[in-house]
Specification:
alpha+beta, nine-stranded mixed β-sheet, eight-stranded mixed β-sheet, 31 helices, binds adenosine-5'-diphosphate, binds magnesium ion
Length: 871
């Protein structure tokens, strides 16, 4: 459409809008007329397809083969028996359905996370500024755009200030493009040349502006090409991938062993039917059916819990990486400090004034002019805390201040950026032009040529500069963030190129931003957890030092400034980051180099960021943490996690959760695999000592899919233990099974297998094969249920409280009840081919089943004197 060469008033009429935004009813009308701001997704798969998808699984195929073979064995042995294959297939189908339900739940939980972390837009509606989800934008909305915003729909600019956008998501060209509201454009200009239009999905790299939305959703530029962009398959986390492989290898291994056993058996002259039976049982025993589904669910439960602790996980794999973090690089402002900035001191040549003495000074007026805060309904609207503090100081120092500001008409703005560290505005006042700059002392002072003292204009010399630097240092040492304010008056519009020259130095403003109290504790927690905390800030080196000392970050580390970093070679910087705890006056580019150096040193880096320019560093770090409150949409989009309260302590909580969730996943894996090994051992040893097969496939399936999965899930919900922060970070290169976990899995499996086999042997020799199998089946199932309690901690379970994981207790009761029903209710016992046990047999079964706890408790008694070795 040709919105680019229509006038704004035409567009207002066209879209039923005005400069105050749409009215409520107009929103509804435009929604119906022009659609909603959503890219249509591909059709949801229906339930049946989803279940079929589950059945495609490699393991399920083996199980199906097992069912078929079981049918054939029944057929071959002469007694045509449909029950077993039917039960096997039903268990598979039920399992698939449960799988779908669980996955659905897990993905709902993750979708919910996506929703809270999805982009927002600031708009005018009903003459009020509102922050809404970008997907709720409609055509005609008046959108407010600031640097760092993601443009969520196509926009025609109404007003703009040095507005640059990055349209690389659409054009691939990442050099920012200047956009201008006032420009007049001829008809038939191609999209790339429409300088007064913003394209959906582009991002604002600097400047600000206001615009009217002209197209949303599928009608926007991005919507038009969206069809080709759809279809991004779900990505698995590294852990999930690794587990996929583990299961695959286990399955393949099982098939090979089955084959070998089958052949040996046949060669030894054993009946084919027996051999088939043993082989299938073995295959069923070896496959950890629930493993992957359970890990996914544990992850989903974990990230849902993290939301309540102010951490939104955007990428699931961050959970795993969090547990491995060795360095946290944190912003100062807002993350380590409270972001409640307040003007504390003002310096005007040659006096330092306290808060009640500077009321009528010109410096406050200039601070409020060179500023993007607005005063409405007695509230200050702003997202930049530094600006807000300056604005507040002016507004609340006198009555009618609001009114004074209205005498000045802004004609130009060069916005603040972390690279230039200052901001400049030009105002028309009466017949003159007033240029005001505010920013870092070291960036602005050498652009000033004069200052006023007692109404006399005096030239700035070296000694004056030195004096200002000393004042700056004194204020910084008191943890104040120091802003210089300077200005010039001209009777012509100043040349844009020389805006910042020949300025008149007005003074310094010292802003206090107290450190967050809880951060100190979090930092010492990090220390005990083997994690280094490093401060990275754009603020002055001395302010940074003062705050770092207050928070115990500096200890005996070094401070490096951006200037020094620039001079260091990559190789040298790699050495320096090992001993540097504070980086001050850095630019976003320095940030990226710092992360790179840490990573090259083999560290796992968590990095915080909020600005547009922080996106590369956030992406490059192992765990990019964006700020939920002050963060730009661009930073959020690049991050792995979002801290909804901007608080450093929340990163530490996230690390704690990362470690805890990883532990829980390990608990599940440990439990499920040791159970599987127990089953393999039972079957294999029985074969080796030439006993009849002690377990039928159906028994194994029951144990694997029913009585094992509840405790496994319950283990996944184990509370994060406090001692997770007392050990060193997990090593990323260390495999899942390092540190003796594999040995534990095998020995515990051996124990369970031997117990089950023993019960079979006794039942078989003293009673009958049926009794033997029943006892073996029950011991296997119950001993694993008991064994699940062993997984909870490396300490005695009596120490951490037997009842402290409520889910495990529920799973205990449910699983025992299920198992007892299967062997006691007549109809069920027929299906499972078991017999009802008498009191003696039950006593023996219970005695054997409880053994895993006794044995593991004894071994824990001897090993816990060594350090916690669950990782
Ligand atoms: P950080 O967030 O790491 O503390 P910033 O990049 O926000 O650092 O700020 C760096 C420096 O830029 C500050 O020390 C200050 O001198 C200057 N500055 C910060 N905010 C503004 C602003 N809104 N306008 C002008 N200058 C600013
Ligand atoms: Mg900042």
């Amino acid at each position: 459409m040709d919105y680019y060469n229509k006038s704004i008033s035409e567009l207002y009429i066209l879209f039923n809008s005005s400069k105050n935004g749409l009215t409520k009813s107009a929103v509804e009308i435009n929604k119906r007329k022009f659609g909603i701001n959503q890219i249509e997704n591909k059709k949801e798969k229906n339930l049946f397809i989803k279940i079929l998808n589950q059945l495609k699984d490699f393991m399920v195929i083996i199980l199906f083969i097992a069912a078929i073979i079981s049918f054939i064995t029944g057929y071959l042995s002469g007694k045509i028996d449909y029950i077993e294959p039917i039960v096997i297939i039903s268990i598979i189908v039920i399992n698939a359905i449960i799988g779908v339900i669980q996955e659905e739940k897990a993905s709902k939980a993750i979708d919910a996370l996506k929703k809270i972390s999805s982009p927002h837009s600031k708009i005018y509606r009903d003459n009020k500024i509102q922050n809404i989800l970008s997907k709720d934008l409609v055509v005609g909305d008046i959108i407010i755009l600031e640097s760092g915003d993601l443009v969520a729909a196509d926009v025609r600019l109404i007003e703009s200030n040095s507005l640059y956008t990055d349209e690389s998501s659409l054009t691939g060209e990442s050099i920012p493009v200047l956009k201008e509201a006032e420009i007049i454009i001829n008809k038939d200009t191609p999209i790339s040349e429409q300088k007064n239009m913003l394209i959906s999905s582009s991002l604002i790299t600097s400047g600000n502006g206001i615009g009217i939305i002209t197209a949303v959703g599928m009608n926007s530029q991005i919507g038009k090409i969206a069809k080709t962009l759809q279809n991004n398959p779900k990505e698995l986390t590294p852990l999930q991938k690794r587990l996929n492989n583990v299961s695959k290898y286990l399955g393949i291994g099982a098939i090979i062993i089955c084959f070998v056993i089958f052949l040996t058996g046949i060669l030894e002259g054993r009946p084919i039917i027996d051999m088939l039976m043993i082989s299938i049982s073995l295959a069923v025993a070896a496959i950890p059916e629930g493993l992957i589904a359970i890990v996914t669910i544990v992850l989903a439960i974990g990230v849902s819990k993290m939301v309540r602790h102010n951490v939104i996980v955007r990428k699931l794999q961050a959970v795993e990486t969090l547990g491995c973090a060795t360095v946290i690089c944190s912003d100062k402002t807002g993350t380590l400090t409270q972001n409640k900035m307040k003007v504390k001191k003002v310096y005007i040549p040659f006096d330092i004034l306290d808060s009640n003495e500077y009321i009528s000074s010109k410096i406050l007026l200039f601070g409020a002019l060179c500023n993007n805060s607005k005063f409405s309904n007695n509230k200050i609207l702003n997202s930049n805390p530094t600006d807000k503090a300056l604005f507040e100081a002016f507004i609340y120092s006198n009555k009618n201040n609001d009114f004074i500001l209205n005498n000045y008409k802004r004609i130009l703005e060069i916005p603040f950026s972390s690279n230039t560290k200052h901001m400049t505005t030009v105002y028309k006042y009466k017949n003159n032009y007033l240029t005001i700059s505010k920013g870092a002392v070291d960036k602005l002072l050498n652009k000033c040529s004069h200052y006023y003292y007692k109404n006399k204009l005096i030239k700035i010399d070296k000694s004056f500069q030195d004096k200002i630097y000393i004042i700056n240092k004194e204020m910084s040492e008191k943890s104040l963030r120091v802003i210089t304010i300077c200005y010039k008056e001209t009777n012509k519009i100043p040349d844009k190129k020389n805006l910042d020259s020949n300025l008149i130095f007005c003074g310094l403003v010292g802003i206090i931003d107290p450190p967050r109290l809880e951060v100190k504790k979090s930092i010492s927690l990090c220390k005990s957890a083997g994690i280094r905390t490093v401060m990275i800030t754009g603020d002055h080196i001395i302010t940074a030092k003062a705050i770092a000392n207050e928070l115990n970050i500096l200890s005996n580390g070094k401070i490096l400034s951006g200037e020094e970093i620039e001079k260091l070679s990559n190789e040298k910087l790699k050495q320096e980051v090992k001993i540097t705890n504070v980086f001050a006056r850095v630019t976003p580019e320095d940030k990226l180099r710092i992360v790179k150096s840490f990573k090259e040193n083999g560290e796992i880096v968590a990095m915080t960021g909020d600005g547009v320019n922080d996106a590369p560093a956030l992406r490059y770090s192992d765990i990019g943490c964006a700020m939920g409150i002050t963060g730009t949409e661009v930073a959020k989009n690049a991050a792995d996690i979002i801290l909804t309260d901007d608080n450093f302590s929340s990163i530490v909580t996230a690390v704690k959760f990362g470690r805890g969730i990883y532990d829980n996943i390990k608990r599940c894996i440990h439990f499920l695999l040791s159970s599987n090994i127990g089953e393999i051992i039972t079957i294999l040893f029985a074969f080796l000592v030439k006993l009849p097969t002690p377990l039928l496939p159906i028994h194994l399936l029951w144990v694997n899919l029913v009585t094992d999965s509840f405790p496994a899930l319950a283990l996944g919900a184990e509370r994060v233990q406090n001692n997770v922060m007392e050990r060193k970070p997990l090593s990323k290169n260390k495999g899942l099974f390092s540190d003796g976990m594999l040995i534990n899995i095998v020995t515990e499996g051996l124990m369970i297998g031997l117990l089950a086999l023993l019960s079979f042997y006794i039942g078989y020799s003293y009673y009958s094969i049926e009794v033997g199998r029943t006892m073996c089946f029950t011991v296997l199932s119950l001993s694993q249920i008991f064994h699940s309690f062993n997984m909870r901690s490396e300490n005695s379970i009596f120490k951490i409280g037997l009842l402290s994981n409520i889910y495990l207790n529920i799973s205990f009761v449910v699983c025992c009840a299920l198992q007892i029903s299967v062997v006691s209710i007549k109809e069920l016992s027929l299906i499972f081919k078991v017999s009802v046990l008498n009191i003696n047999q039950w006593s023996l079964v219970l005695l054997l089943s409880i053994m895993p706890i006794i044995v593991v408790e004894i071994s824990k008694y001897f090993t816990t004197k060594k350090k916690y070795s669950f990782n």
